[in-house]
Design a protein that fits this description.
The protein is of the alpha+beta class and 229 residues long. The chain folds into 2 domains: 97 residues, Immunoglobulin-like, CATH 2.60.40; 110 residues, no CATH class. The protein is built from 4 helices and 11 strands. Helix 1 crosses helix 4. The relative contact order is 0.16. About 3% of the residues have low confidence.
């Protein structure tokens, strides 16, 4: 387990993000405001919290980009999360002191449909997720097909021992998104691209996805999985 900023850091950006990284993937539904908190003394800060399954980290920011107070010590606590097998993770607590800056890091959720459509065409559509009989009914060949077969559509797990899904990912939509915002951590597609053992069957694509490709798709989902040109 590691944190960014590390414990004891000073001059920390008042808009975050603040991260706690784990050595295994967490159950995304266990990461929320009830298990992730930020306090200064007895004063609690309202957070925006999400889980990044690519880097295996909890990511916290101030809710609605309201910056923290400068020159104050805060404690970020993650307690009550569990991994994809249901095993509780060790609690984490990180203390840091804010500086004057409030930059907020690089913007997220900026990837348009055109960028991810190019990736789908090159890596997914030909021979698998396109044509008249796309694999597992998942068609990534057009905006209309993605809306009909992926966004909000429950994933069907196949393969693996006795065809029995492992814990942790059952019931996730293939792409979990609404207009204006989405959640890569609860999108089954991300776990298939990661080749996670809890997503049964072969990885997607079979030869594996690069970190750049994973980031592209995750950022597109964060943007709400837009399908307009």
């Amino acid at each position: 387990m590691s944190a960014e900023p590390p414990g004891g850091a000073s001059d920390v950006d008042r808009l975050g993000p603040w991260r706690v990284r784990y050595d295994r993937r967490l159950a995304p539904t266990s990461v929320h405001r009830g298990t992730v908190s930020l306090r200064s003394g007895s004063v609690a800060v309202l957070l925006s919290v999400r889980y990044d399954p690519i880097n295996q980290e909890v990511v916290a920011r101030p809710f609605r980009d309201h910056p923290l107070v400068a020159g104050v010590e805060y404690t970020l606590t993650v307690d009550g999360v569990r991994d994809l097998d249901g095993v509780p993770a060790e609690p984490a607590q990180v203390r840091f002191v804010t500086g004057a800056g409030a930059e907020g890091g690089a913007p997220e959720g900026q990837t348009p449909w055109a960028a991810v459509a190019e990736l789908f065409t090159a890596r997914c559509v030909d021979g698998c997720h396109g044509g008249t009989r796309p694999a597992m009914g998942l068609d990534l060949s057009s905006p209309e097909a993605v809306r009909a077969t992926a966004i909000g559509v429950p994933a069907v797990q196949t393969g693996g021992r006795d065809e029995v899904p492992r814990r942790g990912l059952g019931g996730l939509p293939i792409i979990d998104a609404l207009p204006g915002g989405g959640r890569p951590a609860t999108s089954y597609l991300i776990y298939k691209m990661l080749g996670d053992e809890h997503a049964l069957g072969a990885p997607m694509p079979p030869e594996g996805a690069t970190n750049e490709e994973l980031r592209l798709v995750a950022d597109w989902i964060l943007a709400g999985a837009p399908t307009t040109h």
